[in-house]
Design a protein that fits this description.
By secondary structure, chain A is of the alpha/beta class. Chain A has seven helices and 15 strands. In chain A, strand 3 and strand 4 form a beta hairpin. Chain A is globular, with a radius of gyration of 18 Å. Chain B contains twelve helices and eleven strands. Classes of the chains: A alpha/beta, B alpha/beta.
Chain lengths: 274, 341
């Protein structure tokens, strides 16, 4: 008999970490192994409440558990924010495609993340630094609304910055507070005066739709080509397997043909930024 | 495949026998319309196998309005069905919709065990249309008013009985097992062709009046009209009820809803409608298709652009049910005609 693709794997919550006033990271241990690649997503079930799609934010090389960073945005995510260690949830997946790491080899890699969009980029970043000798360097541009909205603070502001000489960070906030000494401005301002050989670079963008739109336009403006830009699209991925119809984007289903798209594959779709 | 003749009393006997192994549904007339109803104890009873398509499509037999697809974390669904469904009197437009449904639920990369079970176990005894409805336009999409494939047995009404064409091994098995009920088709075969030709000509004339552009020009015309006023103009009378979606044999979209709690939750699959506001909405309320006009256009995009590119077929079979069901009197044949203006 064919497997039932709608049944989640029973999963234990093994930790909850508050990243920001609106974002929590939950650590999960599924009963059966669920191995994902950076960029792929999973459907997380809160028993009796519903399901929602998330891209894991932990390293794909971490096999014993996976982490998901979740912004409180709707009905299901509000319940996820109430989770405690020991609670039982469900997971299905992984679904969709991953970041094509082989296409990034030998290149200067630009990561552009906004808000909770940093979550998938964290998984990607950890996968990249795992094999750092394959890549020329990484420039990681992070934008958040305010300093308290920065997620993975101890990593982004400290640990990752010292990790490898080939990794550089550009961090900005839209609005500073009294303690903030760093850059102020939208994430697109971090793309000014990049010290990158654009011809040998790829840019990976993840964040809210409006941020992705303006970051993509800015990248094109400074000289990136459509085929050098990779986007993680967010649509209403409900079934995750290309059947329910909710996440259609042109001739693609984001759940099965994405969520990672090279920009030249989708730039002509009418409703891309809607 | 083999062709036979079966008279109505013998067909009733056959249906009665089949009803031991199948739940048999056939179109029964009420208030001038045809509705699928359970038959079998008296054979076909009052069922009408000619005329036009029933009000409902055959979609719900394979993709029920509501299916329990997960029960806590147990993987024992789908369970064994007591008796599978036999549909008698399915029309060509509905068989054409199976191309879309089969692609989505059984041929595409992920397989849906619930749909596949129902399709594999089900029996389809289809039948020719003998007239056409006002909203019918199948032939404009090169779908004939008589089944040409995807049936187990097809019945073409002739005088006191039916020419029975076998279309599958399952159908052949039935014809062999009940061979006493079948006769040689003989000259009835010619009569069948004559009837088919006559109705097709009538339908072509009917469709000509609708001024629907040629089949091959529909997709290019849709692309051309993507940003036109057509969608705003057409949507004015829409009340966002979703009837066009639920009545459509080829609309496959569904919503997943969980209910119950803790150790006792279940996941339901329910028909959904892309005309409803929340269809493409994501958590936090962002909505890629906020406007009703965008959602109407999306429906045509899926049917006349996405599916032609994906499977080389339209996601519409010309059954015209959405035109009949729409309380706002939005007619798919008129929208298609306007694509060409």
């Amino acid at each position: 008999m064919i497997d039932n693709p709608y049944t989640p794997i029973k999963t234990e919550v093994v930790g909850v970490n508050e990243e920001s006033p609106t974002i929590k990271t939950v650590s999960l241990k599924p009963e059966k192994p669920l191995h994902f690649k950076a960029g792929q997503f999973v459907e997380m079930t809160i028993p009796g409440v519903g399901e929602a799609p998330f891209t894991p934010s932990s390293s794909p090389y971490e096999k014993s558990k996976l982490e998901i960073s979740i912004m409180k945005a709707g009905r299901v995510t509000a319940k996820i924010h109430d989770l405690k260690k020991g609670d039982i949830v469900g997971l299905r997946g992984p679904y969709g495609n991953e970041y094509p790491l082989s296409e990034f080899e030998g290149k200067e890699i630009l990561l552009v993340g906004g808000g909770v969009g940093l979550a998938p980029l964290r998984a990607l970043f950890l996968a990249l630094v795992h094999d750092m000798d394959k890549y020329k360097n990484i420039t990681f541009c992070c934008g958040s609304r305010t300093p308290s909205d920065i997620i993975y603070k101890d990593c982004v502001l400290d640990k990752w910055q010292k990790m490898n000489k080939k990794v550089k960070f550009r961090i900005t906030v839209d609005k500073k507070d009294n303690n903030w000494k760093g850059n102020v401005g939208l994430v697109t301002t971090t793309l000014d005066n990049l010290k990158i050989d654009l011809k040998n670079s790829v840019a990976i963008v993840c964040g809210p739709p409006i941020m992705m739109k303006f970051s993509t336009f800015k990248l094109l403006e400074i000289g990136y080509k459509n085929e050098q830009i990779y986007l993680s699209m967010e649509k209403n991925m409900s079934c995750g397997i290309g059947k329910c119809g909710h996440c259609r984007l042109g001739n693609f289903y984001v759940c099965k043909d994405g969520p990672v798209f090279r920009y030249d594959r989708i730039n002509n779709i009418h409703e891309i930024w809607d | 495949m083999n062709i036979y003749f079966i008279n109505r009393p013998n067909l009733d006997r056959l249906i009665k026998s089949l009803s031991k192994a199948y739940k048999v549904y056939a179109p029964v007339k009420s208030d001038g319309n045809r509705y699928y109803q359970k038959v079998g104890d008296d054979g076909l009873g009052e069922a009408v196998l000619g005329e036009i398509r029933p009000v409902q499509s055959i979609k719900s037999f394979f993709l029920p309005v509501r299916t329990k697809i997960s029960d806590y974390f147990y993987e024992d669904l789908p369970g064994k069905k007591s008796r599978p469904v036999a549909i008698v009197g399915a029309k060509s437009c509905d068989l054409a919709s199976l191309k879309v449904m089969d692609y989505v639920f059984r041929q595409d990369s992920f397989k849906d065990p619930f749909y596949i079970q129902r399709r594999d176990e089900g029996l389809i005894i289809s039948s020719d249309c003998t007239s056409h409805g006002e909203s019918c336009f199948c032939v404009a999409l090169s779908i004939m008013p008589y089944p040409t494939e995807d049936f187990d047995i097809n019945l073409s009404e002739i005088e006191s009985g039916y020419v029975a064409e076998v279309g599958s091994e399952k159908g052949e098995k039935i014809a062999k097992e009940y061979s006493k009920l079948f006769q040689k088709a003989g000259l009835y075969k010619d009569k069948k062709e004559e009837n088919r030709k006559k109705l097709t000509e009538e339908l072509l004339a009917h469709v000509k009046d609708k001024k629907i552009p040629g089949k091959d020009s529909l997709q290019p015309l849709f692309k051309k009209k993507f940003d036109s006023e057509l969608w705003e103009e057409t949507i004015k009378t829409c009340v966002e009820c979703g009837a066009c979606n639920v009545i459509c044999p080829a609309c496959h979209c569904f919503a997943l809803k969980d209910q119950g709690k803790d150790n006792n939750f279940e996941r339901l699959r329910l028909w959904d409608s892309c005309l409803l506001r929340s269809f493409a909405m994501v958590a936090g309320g962002a909505n890629p298709r906020k406007l009703l006009a965008q959602r109407l256009r999306n429906r045509f995009d899926k049917k006349f652009n996405f599916f032609p590119d994906t499977i080389g077929k339209f996601g519409c079979t010309g059954c015209g049910r959405c035109s009949d069901a729409c309380p706002g009197k939005i007619r798919i044949d008129e929208v298609l005609a306007k694509l060409g203006i």
